[in-house]
Amino acid sequence: MLGYMEKINDGEGHPSSSHQALKGTSKWATSLENLLEDPEGVKRFREFLKKEFSEENVLFWLACEEFKKTQGKKQMQEKAKEIYMTFLSSKASSQVNVEGQSRLSETILETPHPLMFQKLQDQIFNLMKYDSYSRFLKSDIFLNHKKSEEQEENSPEAQTAAKRASRIYNT
User: Fold this and answer.
1) Phi and psi for 15 in degrees, rounded to 5?
2) Which residues on adjacent β-strands are paired with residue 15?
3) SS3 label, residue 9
4) 62: helix, coil or strand?
5) Buried b vs exposed e over 63-101: b needs ≥16 C-beta within 10 Å?
6) Residue 9: φ, ψ to 5°
7) Which pLDDT belongs to residue 101?
8) CB 142 within 8 A of CB 79
9) pTM higher than 0.85 for the full model?
């Protein structure tokens, strides 16, 4: 449910800049969860992790999120096997480094359930949260994107919309 402040518009259906919720890099900087909810944030984070040779972590996390939404036993078995072969098997092309990985045998793939990868996904999330995420916030990828957002906000078009909005609400 939207809060009162988030519902205020500038008269043209756009949120008023004086009452706008955090977005873009400002929102990404508040938590890894917020970053992962934003497709542009995921794109930038993947770009960063690729340079760090750990993109498989976010890809695994995203695959697990998608897996939880899977309907039907056959589709679930197929996706579970794909996740296992891509990220968890000893022969995986994008192997993630998680504890207990060796104990997850292929037999579990025969009886899949939406949360079967949850413990491993949580380990990867924590690894990203306490390791990669903090470095991402200091990276050129993040800082340059933040700078371009600030330049857009300070453009004449953005200022005109803000002035229009303040006239509407301060009359």
Assistant:
1) -60, 140
2) 9
3) strand
4) helix
5) bbeebeebeeeeebeebbeebbebbbeeebeeebebeeb
6) -115, 170
7) 58
8) no
9) no
pLDDT at 11: 39
Q: How confident is the model at residue 99 (pLDDT cuts 50, 70, 90)?
A: confident
Residue type, 70: T
Contact 165, 10 (CB under 8 A): yes
For the stretch 11-30, pLDDT in tens is: 334 443 333 467 889 999 99
C-alpha to C-alpha distance for 165 and 11, rounded to whole angstroms: 7
The phi, psi pair for 84, rounded to 5°, reads -60, -50
- Within a 13 Å sphere around the CA of 92, how many CA atoms are in the beta-carbon half? 21
Torsion of CA 93, 98, 103, 108, to 10 degrees: -60
Q: Alpha-carbon distance 125 to 96, whole Å? A: 11
pLDDT at position 107: 78
